[in-house]
UniProtKB/TrEMBL annotation:
Transmembrane regions listed in the UniProt entry: 41-64, 116-137, 143-163, 183-204
PANTHER family recorded: AMINO ACID EFFLUX PERMEASE RHTB FAMILY (PTHR30086:SF16), ARGININE EXPORTER PROTEIN ARGO (PTHR30086)
Protein name: LysE family transporter
Pfam families named among the record's database cross-references: LysE (PF01810)
């Protein structure tokens, strides 16, 4: 793969990773609830979910979705439901998390599970890969070039969210965030539920 083409790919992946949304809210929530370690784990496992979609893309995800639209609709509805459920959980944490830090506690196992599931359940990721990443794939592409695409998407996503978790876990920043945890939980809940509703509305509008 020419370096100029790879740089374009890296820029698109970086823009996708850095855009605010449920993934950022997830890493923030786990960093807030458990410190650096759960936040980093959430970021790494989110990257694994991104890598999975990148792999499907280089194997022909776009053609599959065009041929079997019901598959895409099913994934979209299930994903929207999961995001809404996470949003409700965050809203219910609300004030309780501010009064009792233990109610917001999280573990690395929970962070890993939610990290990968939020990536897989986010319909925006599917659309992102079909619309943008698939532009870098062609039938004659070598296995090495396909592997580079998958690795680039996964590494950039993981590096960004690990960096976010490390930055947020600094003692002063983390303490400031914890004092405002109820507002962060509410904002996270609204973001997740809003995305879920937007996805369902776009599907059936």
């Amino acid at each position: 793969m020419p370096i100029s083409l790879w740089l374009s790919l890296a820029a698109i992946c970086a823009a996708g990773a850095m855009s605010p949304g449920p993934s950022l809210a997830l890493v923030l929530r786990h960093t807030l609830g458990g410190g650096r370690s759960p936040g980093v784990v959430a970021g790494v496992f989110h990257a694994l979910g991104v890598g999975f979609y990148a792999l499907l893309t280089v194997l022909g995800l776009g053609a599959l979705m065009a041929r079997f639209p019901l598959v895409f609709e099913t994934i979209t509805v299930v994903g929207a439901g999961y995001l809404a459920w996470l949003g409700i959980k965050a809203l219910r944490a609300g004030r309780a998390a501010a009064l009792d830090p233990d109610t917001a506690a999280t573990t690395r196992r929970q962070a890993a599970r939610e990290g990968v599931l939020v990536a897989l359940a986010n319909p925006k990721l599917i659309l992102f890969f079909i619309a943008l990443l698939s532009q870098f794939v062609h039938p004659e592409m070598s296995a090495t070039a396909r592997a580079i695409i998958v690795a680039t998407a996964m590494v950039i996503d993981g590096a960004w969210y690990v960096l976010v978790a490390v930055a947020l876990s600094q003692s002063r920043v983390l303490e400031w965030l914890r004092l405002r945890s109820h507002w962060i939980n509410r904002a996270t809940g609204v973001i997740l539920i809003g995305l879920a509703l937007r996805v369902v509305w776009g599907l059936w509008a």
